[in-house]
Amino acid sequence: MGALRPWHIAVLVVVLILLFGAKRLPDAARSLGRSLRIIKAETKSLHDDDRDLAEKADAQAAYQPMPPQAGQQSYAQQQAHVQPPQQQPYAPPQAPQQPVIDPVQRVRDN
User: Is residue 32 part of a domain?
Assistant: First the structure.
């Protein structure tokens, strides 16, 4: 029932020729082929990029830092002996030295 019969293809070709005309069909097929080639090349390059990233990730995962030599301390050991800077207690801002004069009162006094 769902099989594509030869007469289905013939009807499809006739409809395409009627819609687009015999002149435009070769150009349309050519541009469709170019588009498919571009899509194929881009998907291949994306796949290659993913493979390159996976190889780099594997190489970085295998990286292990060298152990410290005799007499040297590791970074974590050095940081364990460093004391944090002393913080000074919070001091609120100082109040202004001159008394605040109400502008309305000043106008009344003059």
Answer: yes
